[in-house]
Write a structure and sequence with these properties.
The complex is a heterodimer of chains A (705) and B (560). With 705 residues, chain A is α+β, with helices and mostly antiparallel strands. Among the domains of chain A are: 117 residues, ATPase, nucleotide binding domain (Nucleotidyltransferase, domain 5), CATH 3.30.420.40; 130 residues, Rossmann fold; 114 residues, no CATH class; 83 residues, no CATH class. In chain A, the strands form 9 sheets. In chain A, strands 13, 14, 15, 20, 23, 24, 31, 34 and 35 form a 9-stranded mixed β-sheet that branches. The longest helix of chain A has 32 residues. By secondary structure, chain B is an alpha+beta fold. Chain B has 2 domains: 216 residues, no CATH class; 202 residues, no CATH class. Chain B has 13 helices and 20 strands. In chain B, the strands form 4 sheets. A 7-stranded antiparallel β-sheet of chain B has the order 2-1-5-4-3-6-7. The radius of gyration of chain B is 24 Å and the shape is globular. The chains are: A alpha+beta (705), B alpha+beta (560). At the A-B interface, α4, α8 and α13 of A face α1, α5, α6, α11 and β14 of B.
């Protein structure tokens, strides 16, 4: 029982990262099997077993796996493709349309062809029942169980597979929801049930009903998938611990995942930011920006001690009000298509050529020019060494597509047009980085950029130049960063209660038991997950606002302040965060601070893989030079011959002077003309501005250490 | 560099948009009045040194197209007396402002000692002085009964707050939060200015100027190409305004003559009725904004919003008409003349570009309750956003958007969250749902309207209405049917029913009065008998079209 495996299921590939004490980690990729993603999981494990030294059978290997951490996008895909369960909603009479209205927003104001997104529950299955609580949770009108029963009868007749219950003001008193839930459980024992206050007992009706409905929509899907996965793993001989990745960057047991399936909805990229942090730690840093550029999307996230969290997000225009990592996704990837708008401006994406037909150079029938095509024309990608030579790229097709669709209409040469596409793609990605940094009150120049994804390191120097970020780190495992991150994720469980009260003079006798109850709930789950006391911690956060503001700011309540019930110190923490986010606070104006929600996060620390450390092998990298090639240097707007290094032959301490290219099987790295690069002890490539060599001092320090 | 680089052009276009978006997020997250942070009744913008629009984020479009004219006015007004660190306030409707309550902050941006740009934020303030809290005073006949006038004034000069001026302004405004909200608007201007300076540090002013000009040019061409697809000719249309707030039964007509000549378009309102003696009057910029936003819905929505976009558009509104009142008339209702103005434009252009117009949109009818929350013993003010949002008109190939709200907001104005509504007011919400059969029938139906019921929770409640749409429903097009009328009814605890006028002020509404409101749907497009039967069956099942209506209007022959 010594192996630990991170498995990240993506749209095209399923990535594996396998660790074993005292051995080099194993990295593997197999093609995903979207119809039943667990098939690729098993075939991947089988493939890995065969490559071990000595080779093992699947059963032998599976039997020695201690933990599998698994990231799945089955819920995400079910939502995006509208293949969720048939759902019913029981809610308060008079408000059943809130779910579909989405507060009356039309995201594209001038576009009269833009239609509303189809609701997660059809209107005839959204049933309002009699029964009402007031804003304090006091019963105004008793719940009509008769009407709940009628709803259930309709659901039975209509073959509803999942039921949501969400009543007005239930955050203040869950009694009606519980009564209704008991009846639904009794009458529809096979249906998946989500009760709003079990999932999200906090104020704001639309947010709660939407999140509840999403949970029911994907619950049966995830349940079915986990059954398949657990069945196959068991059959293969695995009896270790299976953990599931959640959107908050933590992991959870399959049982928690089954009950709160919505926690997985935005979990796809959630393991990346935490992993990024582990790669900057050797450089004495505890913050970074992690970017991941794949085929269709680009993700950016910010880490300060731990990844930045937000309390809500959206999937396919549906609100999901659960704590999650603040990951910003834009439609920019290797497959993003370049086009000219009506005003003659060059644009990149968000339309993507995807994997099929793919960029023109894939020769799979794609005729439109994509980012990858530009990268081929500019010399960044080696047409004969794409994916380590498993696939060859057609330069002529790339040139033709760019000429027809970009160069000719703009009166540019093919190379100029390709350079423009590259430039615009980088500008778009730099904007994505701004969204998670500047817009949240952080200066990106103070953060090292951790670059992941197959297409990331070709663009990162220009992104960094645009943002004036001086330091980048490309982990050796950059193309499977999420799979690595899964093995580094702790168990995390978030809780929230609404407690509307002025902060000054708050009723601590009512508030503390609320916090204690949430901590107890967290302990209960960690008990079930077998986490010992010494590996647990609980953080408390308040969502506060200035009296009569509408938007709350969520901030960590300092432990001492909470213990002492020091309202002034808590207010100070709030003022500070408000000021950081929005450039001002009302501390001096003495505006009262109001609590809206109280949150806790229970953390159970898991065992982390140790990074292997390589001995220093000297600065000279010349032995790794494969060839020299003409590539485009953006700063000089010209092609130049630069050395191309074999990334797998580079060793700790090897230094590369930009401009240069580094090729690895799963990625290519462009070291820009303003940058140099040095390999650190874990094998990461550390790129820094030429005028800032001190930024890589940590790498050299390791020599003497 | 003397010629624009096509790639850098895209970079600048993207950067301008990023700046105004960032300013918008800043305003939304930091303001306290629900009108700003919930309903997003504000606009952020970036202008060049002369006041030409570089980009805007138009959460509520009706405010949007007065920012550039005011910026130009400010540039002229202060001349060489504009300095780094200045902050200027403005709301005055007689110097290009659109509405008294819409107060703007302008901040000049300097680079290497030279004025290069302006950032601006305009937002609807919760109060602006005048005779009635909140600014909507149906009895007003002059501007001073409505608001404090703020012609361009420096509240910060060379980085130093002019405390005397600040106090003078806010001594004339009822609510404290207005100060905080104006501070938040100033904060957003700072955020924008910081980013402009960063951009100029990188590219230099000259490159910026060259690309700015090229961007205007590119956008102008885009707009010209759109206009060129409308056949040449002059097209006329009318829209109706009902009740001036003073004289029951009054009606006014907005008349527009639209002339398309190749790549340019002109809107001439010379034949429009004369101004009223009440507050139902537009200002030039509120009316011109209405014109532009209606036109923008008929062209490619993916167009940058800058000076080039408006260059091919000419708008003529003679002073003294209901759309451009002369000094010192009251004008607070002016923004809400957008729906009938849009009606006139749509009716004029429908015969020539039938594939690009919508049928009529539901007109705004809004209510506002103010009182003391008896449980908290605190004052509350609520604007009934959720109740006022009806449906949009259908267009060829697309149904109208349900519960989107009036065309001047086009889905940018959001409902209060129900539970937050009950926290912030003493009211108890009974119903807020799509109203069956509220949409105009058609091959493509109008967007659905909504019905709202709540129980008023405070005694001696002050109740204000403003709007229209209770005399004439949203119209259908090409065989599509009209929608239904807006309606508000108060049922007092003793059973007395009271239907307020569409511009009204009622004092002393007692606790436990039942509030009922209908916001109508949008007009339908095309013959309802041709509506897709599968869709229709689903709508009957979902209860948004009744079986009776389906049979009567749509010729439905299926079963329930």
């Amino acid at each position: 029982m010594t192996y630990r495996v991170g498995i990240d299921v993506g749209g095209t590939f399923t990535d594996f990262f396998v660790t074993h004490p005292g051995r080099d980690p194993v990295v593997a990729k197999v093609l995903s099997t979207p119809a039943d993603p667990s098939i690729a999981v098993i075939s991947g494990l089988e493939e890995i077993a065969a490559t071990l030294e000595p080779p093992l059978s699947l059963a032998e290997f599976a039997g020695q796996i201690d933990t599998i951490v698994h990231g799945t996008t089955v819920t995400t895909n079910a939502t995006l493709t509208r293949n969720g369960a048939k759902c019913g909603l029981i809610t308060t009479k008079g408000v059943r349309d809130a779910l579909e209205m989405r507060r009356g927003i039309r995201e594209e104001q001038y576009n009269n062809r833009y239609t509303n997104v189809a609701p997660l529950v059809e209107r005839y299955l959204r049933i309002g029942v009699t029964g009402r609580l007031d804003r304090n949770g006091k019963e105004v009108e008793p719940l009509s169980l008769e009407e709940v029963r009628e709803a259930v009868e309709l659901f039975k007749a209509e073959g509803v597979k999942a039921v949501s219950i969400c009543f007005m003001n239930a955050f203040a008193n869950p009694a009606h929801e519980r009564e209704a839930a008991a009846l639904v459980r009794q009458e529809l024992p096979d249906a998946y049930l989500t009760v709003s206050t079990d999932l999200l007992p906090s104020i704001r009706f639309y947010e709660r009903v939407s999140t509840t409905a999403l949970n029911s929509y994907v619950g049966p899907i995830l349940d079915h998938y986990l059954n398949q996965l657990q069945g196959r793993l068991k059959q293969a001989g695995f009896n270790g611990l299976l953990l599931i990745m959640q959107s908050n960057g933590g992991v959870m047991s399959p049982q928690v995942a089954r009950d709160k399936s919505a926690l997985t909805l935005l979990s796809g990229p959630a393991a990346g930011p935490g992993a990024g942090l582990e790669y900057v730690r050797p450089h004495k840093q505890s913050k970074c920006i992690v970017v991941d550029m794949g085929g269709t999307s680009f993700e950016a996230a910010l880490v300060v001690d731990s990844p930045i969290m937000v309390n809500e997000g959206e999937i396919d225009r549906h609100r999901i009000a659960l704590p999650m990592l603040g990951i910003h996704t834009i439609g920019a990837g290797g497959g993003s298509i370049g086009w000219i708008d009506e005003g003659g401006l060059l644009r990149m994406g968000p339309q993507s050529a995807g994997a099929a037909p793919g960029p023109a150079c894939y020769s799979k029938g794609g005729e439109l020019p994509a980012t990858t095509d530009a990268n081929v024309v500019l010399g960044y990608l080696n047409p004969t060494f794409f994916a380590g030579g498993k696939m060859s790229l057609d330069v002529e097709k790339a040139r033709k597509a760019i000429e027809t669709h970009i160069a000719k209409p703009l009166g540019l040469s093919i190379e100029e047009a390709a350079a423009g596409m590259y430039r615009i793609a980088c500008t778009n990605m730099a904007q994505g980085v701004r969204e998670v940094s500047i817009q949240r009150g952080f200066d990106p120049r103070e953060f090292p950029l951790v670059v992941a994804g197959g297409a990331g390191p070709i663009h990162s120097c220009l992104i960094c130049d645009e943002l004036e970020v001086p330091l980048q780190i490309v982990p050796r495992e950059s193309s499977i960063l999420c799979a690595v991150g899964m093995l580094m994720s702790d168990l995390k469980h978030d809780f929230v209660r609404t407690f509307v009260s002025p902060l000054a003079g708050a009723d601590w006798k009512a508030l503390m038991p609320l916090i204690d109850a949430m901590i107890a709930e967290g302990n209960k789950l960690l008990d079930e997950e077998g986490i010992s006391e010494d590996k647990r911690s609980h953080a408390v956060k308040f969502d506060c606002r200035y009296l009569k503001q509408y938007h709350e700011v969520s901030f960590v309540v300092p432990t001492e302040a909470l213990a002492a019930r020091d309202e002034t110190a808590i207010a100070a923490a709030f003022h500070k965060e408000h000021n950081r986010l929005y450039g001002y606070s009302l501390e001096e104006q003495d505006v009262p601070v109001e609590i809206i929600n109280v949150r806790t996060q229970a953390v159970g620390r898991t065992q982390r893989p140790e990074f292997r450390k390589e001995p220093h092998a000297g600065a000279d990298a010349s032995r790794a030079v494969k060839e020299r090639r003409q590539v485009y240097i953006p700063d000089r707007a010209a092609f130049e011959e630069v050395p191309v290094y074999d990334g797998h032959a580079l060793r700790h301490g090897n230094t590369i002077v930009g401009p240069a290219l580094i090729e690895e099987i799963t990625t290519a790295i462009f070291v820009g003309a303003n940058h140099d690069c040095v390999v650190d002890a874990t094998g990461s490539l550390v790129m820094y501005r030429k005028e800032r060599p001190e930024l890589a001092a940590t790498v050299r320090m390791e020599v003497t250490a | 560099m003397s010629k624009a680089d096509p790639i850098l052009l895209s970079v600048f276009a993207r950067a301008f948009k990023a700046i105004t978006d960032e300013m918008s997020i800043s305003v939304q997250k930091t303001t306290r009045s629900p009108i700003l942070c919930e309903a997003k009744d504000f606009v952020t913008g970036l202008y060049d040194a002369q006041g030409n629009m570089l980009e805007q984020t138009e959460n509520l479009p009706i405010l949007a197209f007065s920012l550039a004219p005011v910026c130009r006015y400010i540039v002229e007004f202060f001349g060489d007396d504009i300095h780094e660190g200045d902050v200027i306030f403005h709301n005055d409707v007689f110097s290009m402002g659109n509405q008294n309550n819409d107060v703007a902050v302008y901040k000049p941006v300097f680079h290497e000692g030279k004025l290069v740009a302006w950032t601006a934020v305009k937002g609807h303030q919760a109060d602006i002085g005048g005779a009635v809290a909140g600014g909507y005073n149906p009895t007003a006949t002059e501007v001073w009964q409505e608001a404090l006038r703020i012609p361009p004034v420096k509240v910060v000069e060379r980085g130093k707050l002019r405390k005397d001026v600040w106090d003078l302004i806010f001594a004339n405004i009822r609510l404290d939060i207005v100060q905080h909200d104006m501070r938040a608007q100033m904060g957003a201007c700072n955020v924008g200015a910081r980013r402009v300076v960063e951009m100029l540090d990188k590219y230099g002013v000259r490159t910026f100027e060259i690309h700015k000009a090229a961007l205007f040019d590119a956008t102008r061409k885009m707009m010209e190409a759109e206009i060129a697809t409308i056949p040449n000719g002059t097209y006329s249309g009318e829209g109706m305004v009902y009740f001036d707030g003073h004289h029951v039964g009054t009606e006014f007509t907005i008349r527009v003559d639209i002339t398309v000549k190749d790549k340019s378009i002109s809107f001439d309102y010379s034949r429009t009725d004369a101004q009223t003696d009440g507050f139902v009057n537009g200002t030039f910029t509120s009316s011109a904004s209405a014109t532009i936003l209606t036109l923008l819905q008929m062209v490619n929505p993916d167009m940058p919003h800058n000076e080039g976009m408006v260059q091919p558009i000419e708008i003529k509104i003679p002073e003294g008409t209901i759309l451009n009142a002369s000094y010192p008339k009251a004008t607070t209702f002016g923004n809400h003349l957008c729906p009938p103005n849009a009606d006139a434009i749509i009716r004029a252009l429908a015969p020539v570009i039938p594939d690009r117009v919508t049928a009529g949109w539901n007109n705004l009818l809004c209510s506002l309750t103010t009182g003391i929350d008896p449980q908290k013993n605190e004052k509350y003010v609520d604007i009934g956003f959720m109740g006022l949002k009806g449906g949009s008109g259908a267009m060829k190939g697309t149904d109208g958007y349900d519960h989107i709200g009036m065309i001047d907001a086009s889905g940018g104005l959001l409902d209060q969250d129900y539970e937050m509504f009950e926290q912030q007011t003493p009211h108890l919400l009974k119903r807020h749902e799509y109203l069956p059969d509220s949409a105009g029938a058609g091959q493509w139906r109008g967007g659905l309207g909504v019905v709202t019921d709540y129980v008023i929770g405070s005694d001696n409640t002050q109740f204000v209405t403003f709007g229209d749409g209770d005399f004439e429903p949203a119209f259908g097009l090409f065989g599509g049917k009209d929608s239904i009328l807006n309606e508000i009814t108060l049922t007092y605890p003793d059973g007395t029913k009271r239907v307020p006028r569409n511009k009204d002020l009622i004092m002393g509404v007692p606790k436990n009065t039942h509030y009922h409101q209908v916001a109508g749907g949008g007009g339908g497009y095309g013959d309802p008998k041709k509506r897709d039967r599968k869709k229709l069956a689903r709508e009957i099942r979902d209860g948004i079209i009744s079986l009776e209506a389906a049979r009567e209007h749509y010729g439905y022959e299926g079963k329930a």
